[in-house]
Amino acid sequence: MAKYIIKRLLILIPTLLGVSFIVFALLYMSPGDAALAVAGPDATKETVDAIRENLGLNDPFLIQYLRYLKGIVFEFDLGTSYQTGRSVTDSLLRVFPNTLKLAGGALIIAIVFGITFGIIAAVKKNTIIDSLITAFGMVGLAMPIFWSGLLLIIVFSTRLKVLPASGFSSIRHMIMPWFALGFQSSAVIMRMTRSAMLDVLDKDYIRTARAKGLSKKKVIFVHALKNAMIPVITTIGLQAGSLLGGSILTETIFSIPGIGRLMVDSVKTRDYPMILGGIMLIAVVYCVISIIVDILYGFINPRIKTAKS
Q1: Is it the case that residue 308 has pLDDT exceeding 60?
Q2: Under 8 Å CB-to-CB from 119, ≥6 apart: which residues?
Q3: What are the structural domains of the chain?
């Protein structure tokens, strides 16, 4: 397992290099002038040219990219914001706890509701309960995050006036963003849990466990659920990464000062270092989550642990 983890960590290097190159190239080719955004619409041509030269935007693409890459590799520096002149790393780390809190809370909600309803739907197969839960899953998959967020604001803030519509300073502020972000992921996890449980419940060892007179709870939670968790954990890992991406919309809707909102503001002002830094941070977290999921495989199924080691 240790060798496998080291190999996965080494794979991170070309993965992150590829992400940085693609994003840098897309930003380089995107329309607009970052120097003009910094100088303002009323700036003279001489001022804009001076800012462009100072920021190194006149250099060829490869020179700009290698300079950016050198800062990351040798100085662990994601650059300097065009708009504020502050370190991108410091700016991201200042708001990253809010994004982590948002994605973490949404993931907990998605896991609890997704696995719980998935188990119930599998156990109550082909009943009205199964149909209702499946319908809930379809609604969750079809409902975009921005739509569910606006719907929650209209119902609980505008009409009922029981929850604040913006901010992230207390539990009351966090409830709607958590559910808006976690609703779709809970539907995905629920469908995977239901499918995996139905597959396991038809196995011979489950019938043997029932024939031994084991309680229904023990059969479901000890024998069935543990063996059904591998695809579920994969789904949870993927959803954890997508929640970081979904936080961009959620933070914008609920005015949460996180990485997502910071990146949206940076896109408006063409603050390319801030956009690059945010994407790179999300990519690193996503890759780390992928490695953690692989490690969890070994604890759930010892045969996988033996094969990887």
Answers
A1: no
A2: 193, 194, 197, 220, 225
A3: 95-269 (1.10.3720.10)
